[in-house]
Amino acid sequence: MGNIAEDVQSRFENNKVKALINILYTAGWITNKQNAFFKPFGISPQQYNILRILKGAGVPLKAQTVKERMIERSPNATRLMDKLSSKKLIERLPCDHDRRVVYIHITKDGLSLLKEISTDLNMDFLEKLSEQEAGHLSDLLDKLR
User: Fold this and answer.
1) Are the C-beta atoms of 61 and 104 separated by less than 8 Å?
2) Is the dihedral of CA 57, 85, 71, 29 positive or negative?
3) Cys-Cys with 95: which of 39, 75, 101, 122 at CB 3.0–4.6 Å?
4) What pLDDT, in 10s, does the model give residues 109-136?
5) Which InterPro entries does the UniProt record give (predicted)?
6) CA 139 to each of CA 28, 131, 133, 135: distance values in angstroms, whole numbers, following the listed order
7) 106: phi > 0 → left, psi -120 to 50 → alpha, else beta; which?
8) For 64-88, b where at least 16 C-beta lie within 10 A, e where not — what string?
């Protein structure tokens, strides 16, 4: 079991500071695990998020809507979509009545990649939490925000 004080070799002035450092440290730890997991698939966690948003919507979405729904709101979302488009995982569809609006649609290749990833998605670290603990953690994080 991890111990934030040992992991960062530090002491904390109080439990609130310790909790904040633990959240930031754990977020970085999860990001590193995700980056390593998605690397063989040729996409980033943020690109995976875009694909999941589009699949879940079931219809083409405005690019702005995709940006708003992202877990990690990124100023480079357009660049992320450019990369997905160049890999033929999404396609851009112009709006008929407003040329400033672009719709984003997941392609068959994008859906196939999601299906391949879903069979491999490894989140075994979550198994360390019971359903009750996970619910409590989620409630605490909601309270924090």
Assistant:
1) yes
2) positive
3) 101
4) 999 999 999 765 667 788 888 999 989 9
5) HTH_MarR-typ, MarR/SlyA-like, WH-like_DNA-bd_sf, WH_DNA-bd_sf
6) 21, 12, 10, 6
7) beta
8) eebbebeeeeeeebeebbebbeeee
Gap between the Cα atoms of 34 and 85, Å rounded: 21
**pLDDT above 90 coverage of the chain, percent:** 54
Residue 34: closest CA among 122, 119, 115, 118: 122
DSSP state of 75: T
CB distance 77 to 67 below 8 Å: yes
**CB 35: neighbour CB atoms within 10 A?**
11
Q: Is the pTM higher than 0.85?
A: no
